[in-house]
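Posted in: Protein Modeling Q&A

I'm a second-year student putting together a small comparison for a lab meeting, and my supervisor asked me to include a predicted structure for Putative acyl-CoA dehydrogenase. I've never done this before, so apologies if this is the wrong subforum. The sequence is pasted below exactly as I got it from our records. If anyone can share the structure token output, I'd also love a short note on what stands out.
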Amino acid sequence: MTISARAYELADKVEAFVRAVVIPYERDPRRDHHGAPMDELVQEMRAKAREAGVLTPHILPDGTHLTQRETAVVLIRSGLSPLGPLACNTNAPDEGNMYLLGHVGSPALKDRFLKQMVEGRARSAFLMTEPADWGGAGSDPSMMKTTCHRDGNEWVINGRKSFITGFAGAKVGIVMAKADEGACMFLVDLPDPAITIDYVPNTIDSSMPGGHATLTIENLRVSPEQMLGEAGEGFKYAQVRLSPARLSHCMRWLGACIRAQEIASDYACRRQAFGKALIDHEGVGFMLAENRIELRQAELMIDWCAAVLDTGSLGTEESSMAKVAVSEALMRIADRCVQVMGGTGVTDQTIVEQVFREIRAFRIYDGPTEVHKWSLAKKIKREWKHAQGLA
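Accepted answer (user: helix_wrangler)
Welcome! Here is the predicted structure, written out as tokens:
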């Protein structure tokens, strides 16, 4: 499936907007104690994105989505600033939540919840991960302890959740819980008095409003109409969301590393040491050359995985491979950018140090590298057993 001229034109518009309008906001002081942009700042940028015609660019006016390959060329450009995805409404977890609702939600759920998200009026949160000290689900979703059961005409949900990105200030929540039938998903309006924030930890990353909260859910009552899809199908719906969401992270952070490479290259070409520009020293120039190679490799990996998803496949294996390859490559790229810039690279004078921090976190969320490798190794063993007639 080819990438349309329309998608490239839209990507160009997004890039022009991010470079001209969003990047100046990187020095805006409207941040919380953790350094994340405050909602006032987000809404101000989104108003300008709406005016420029680049708000939620991956979802077309008729509600259909760009293909995954087309989404990639747009989301990479939106990631050229850590604020770009927030401004253009292509950020996590909202982009993944919009994708899930668009594919699984009923017309009523789309009208009640999805519409305000697509319009950029509401942030959302995906409530799946649970606290380790509670013995709940992390990388292993089968350990889920949050429960839901029917009580008359309602479902009642009880449990705990942790690392819930963007919860503080979100207006839409997708809650996963375990019933007798299996895992279920529910759409809820936020805030809700039945869901309380225990604490919001300080974390290495700082690009996402609302932090990564730990929550307690106590007797949250929701109507059956707020269930996403069918009871017991929650894990299947999670895969509908997670495979493209992993890839979307790769897209956005590739954009950030492209920008970090630009900044480091500019520094290396301007800065003089030992009688010549830094880039003329092989130790520096070769790092930037290695970055250029790995940036291109990451782009090709994203495009390959996107093409698989565009065939209608869930692409679980492909998205795992892309998540591992791209996140690890981007970590090396960000690290080299810091190294090239020396002392300046570890300051907040540029976004390079933030990109380094954000990519370090990216290696963990949506499945750490080791979990994806473990899953791939299990598949290799299954294939071997099948080939040997042992399956």
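A couple of things worth pointing out for your meeting: The first strand starts at residue 124 and ends at 127. Residues 239 and 314 are 7 Å apart (CA to CA).
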